[in-house]
Write a structure and sequence with these properties.
single chain, about 650 residues, alpha+beta, 5 domains, six-stranded antiparallel beta sheet, globular
Length: about 650
């Protein structure tokens, strides 16, 4: 009683399929996984694209391409080969009909949520929350991945990556986890305060979010939270907030090592001078550096602060065996504990200024053969998947035998015995592992399994038709029909999705996402907003007569915001317009890139005034359709006032509006 019948598939077949899947994930996914930057055509983590009459695996056929490759040793490339037992297991799976590893999950999982259901869940959660908490609640969704048919294991990895990244961007002492709202576990809620975030940080996140589709049924959510969007997709957030600029901005990382140490209340010069709370080590060969490398550890209130010193050479002044005290690095990496035990990362050049990416002529990422550049945040998380890496110091034994070395005793005090170094490394790794475990995560076996990096790679990989349709909230057939009937979409490259197993690059998809939204009419027509407009206008004075307003061209359906003053953030006005009923009534779509817009709103602030001026113009002709100004003490306040006036003007200027 209570057992699930697996659609005619015996449990032995399911176990066999899962074992085969594990082998494919281990040996093949690095090059043939959906999220691999070294993607080579065959997708092994999508059963439907791997198995079939003309696929790499033909059920029951010993001549399947996959089997031929592993038997001959042609695949996988490199030194890691399948054992005889693993080849036998894979062959057994194919010859027994290549049963699916997805069957049980699909039979037992609740149905994926529609967009309307996601919005209703969030609304229901919000209205039950205490009123004073509502403005701090924010939401993430995995529903699009569930609708695209990803496995439960992949959804688990997405959730694990989200929790790890959230806590890796937090200055709170406690580990916090999002709360799931439904049985699918695909809608999640956080409280900004749990991560020491405020509305400005969230607005910076959503200011970079390119996939918001504004609908009238989101209005209650926007009103209660004050957020410009109802929710953010988990995979986009993990991929984007784990790298600069968001990684630096959310953590509030300063522009230099000096300022970072001041932020951490750390005086490294004093520690070195007093020979207390600091140790140093050096290696001849490093896993990331092309030359010798020095590593230095300082104690902090949060735990540890590790700094590497990387060089362009191993000779002369940059030879750490000859100059173990007076270091002249070309750059370095800093790893420090956050108050909750998680690790944060900082890359710097030789002058101590913060970098987004490390120069590949100095250091490189061995885990990304096709993209060896180290990017701050995500690259470091993948490399240090289990915390601090153990290593053996090569310097102490050398300087111990150099009796004539200047300041030899000081150097020996700094370059400690290997046993002491090991204890500190173990202590720091344990602190990080405890934090990851407390967050519900697992310690991966290798860098490729680290969840933040894995989710980031998957997100950046090409999209197939099913995932593309799910991201839009439509059926694949509707997406294909929309592309087939629109020559502009085909000319932009979306025709790639019409061919069998066709894919489209993520950057192209993201750049022209607004075009798809407009073409498929995913933004509700203006008439849908009439009730909202009436409600919003109930406490306002009557708008100016329509006759006094110019009429926008009928083709005007996308608007971007630009600014001529550093005192104004376009994201503030974007957020206010997203929540503005009059703007919705205009039916105009808000886009981030000016090149995609029909209309431009340009904001300026005349010098030595508190006036904020704006113009609304046609991008291609520069013809100005409206202009005005408001007075406000700061850009944020100005954005609220400008949104009300701009929204009203656009609503009254659009042809055919009542």
């Amino acid at each position: 009683a209570g057992e699930i019948t697996l659609l005619g598939q015996p449990s032995g077949d399911l176990e066999l399929a899962r074992n085969a899947q594990a082998g494919l994930t281990r040996y093949c996914s690095p090059c043939h996984g959906r999220g691999s930057p070294a993607f080579k055509g065959v997708i092994v983590d999508d059963y439907r694209q791997l198995v079939g009459p003309d696929k790499a695996v033909v059920p029951g056929s010993a001549d399947s391409r996959l089997l031929k490759m592993v038997r001959t040793g042609a695949m996988p490339q490199g030194s890691a080969k399948l054992s005889d037992e693993e080849i036998r297991l894979l062959t057994d799976w194919v010859m027994r009909g290549a049963p699916s590893w997805e069957t049980e999950a699909k039979a037992s999982r609740p149905a994926a949520l529609t967009e309307t259901q996601v919005i209703r869940l969030i609304e229901s959660d919000l209205v039950r929350a205490p009123e004073r908490d509502q403005r701090f609640l924010r939401y993430f969704s995995l529903a699009h991945l569930d609708n695209a048919g990803v496995t439960e294991a992949e959804l688990d990895r997405q959730r694990e990556a989200l929790v790890k990244l959230l806590n890796s961007l937090s200055w709170r002492r406690a580990i916090s986890k999002p709360r799931t709202l439904d049985a699918t576990g695909t809608v999640l809620r956080i409280d900004l305060r749990d991560f020491d975030w405020d509305e400005a940080i969230w607005n910076r996140i959503v200011g970079a979010y390119p996939y918001a589709i504004t609908r009238p049924d989101q209005r209650l959510i926007l009103d209660l939270t004050g957020s410009p969007v109802a929710y953010v997709r988990v995979d986009w957030f993990v991929a984007t907030a784990s790298v600069p600029p968001l990684y630096h901005e959310i953590l509030g990382l300063p522009a230099s090592v000096t300022d970072l140490e001041r932020l951490l209340d750390l005086d490294t010069a004093r520690n070195l001078r007093q020979e207390k709370f600091v140790v140093r080590a050096g290696v001849r060969n490093s896993g990331v550096s092309r030359n010798n490398r020095a590593l230095e550890r300082h104690e902090t209130r949060q735990g540890a602060y590790w700094r590497s010193y990387d060089f362009t050479s191993s000779t002369g002044p940059q030879n750490i065996f000859e100059n173990p005290l007076d270091l002249h690095p070309a750059g370095g990496e800093i790893i420090f504990n956050l108050p909750n035990g998680m690790q944060a990362y900082f890359l710097a050049n030789g002058r101590g200024n913060r970098l987004d990416r490390a120069p590949t002529e100095i250091v490189f990422d061995r885990n990304e053969p096709d993209r060896s550049e180290i990017v701050n945040g995500r690259s470091c998380m993948s490399c240090h998947f289990a915390g601090m890496k153990t290593f053996r110091d090569d310097v102490r034994n050398v300087i111990s035998g150099q009796a004539s070395l200047p300041d030899r005793d000081r150097a020996l005090a700094l370059y400690v015995e290997q046993g002491q170094l090991d204890r500190l490394l173990d202590e720091d790794a344990a602190r990080f592992r405890h934090a990851v475990t407390e967050a519900g995560g697992r310690i991966p076996e290798d860098p490729r399994s680290e969840p933040v990096g894995a989710v980031g790679r998957r997100f950046e990989a090409p999209l197939g038709t099913e995932l593309a349709a799910a991201e839009l909230g439509v059926q694949p057939a509707a997406l294909r029909a929309g592309i087939e009937g629109n020559t502009r979409l085909s000319s932009l490259g979306f025709g790639q999705l019409l061919i069998e197993n066709g894919t489209i690059k993520r950057d192209l998809w993201q750049e022209h996402f607004p075009d798809l939204v407009r073409a498929l009419a995913l933004v509700e027509p203006p008439s849908s907003f009439r009730a909202l407009r009436a409600e919003a206008q109930s406490d306002r004075s009557a708008p100016p007569p329509r006759a006094s307003q110019p009429e926008l061209p009928r083709a005007s359906r996308a608007l971007a915001i630009t600014t001529r003053t550093v005192w104004f953030k376009t994201g503030d006005l974007e957020g206010e317009l997203v929540a503005n009923a009059d703007f919705h009534e205009s039916g105009i779509l808000l886009v981030q890139r000016a090149a995609l817009a029909d209309l431009l709103v340009t904001v300026d602030r005349p010098a030595l005034t508190f006036d904020w001026t704006y113009t609304i113009s046609e991008r291609k002709t520069s013809v100005v359709f409206a202009a005005g100004k408001t007075t406000a003490p700061d850009g944020r306040s100005a954005a609220r006032q400008l949104a009300r006036e701009i929204g009203l003007r656009l609503r009254n200027a659009v042809p055919g509006q009542p």
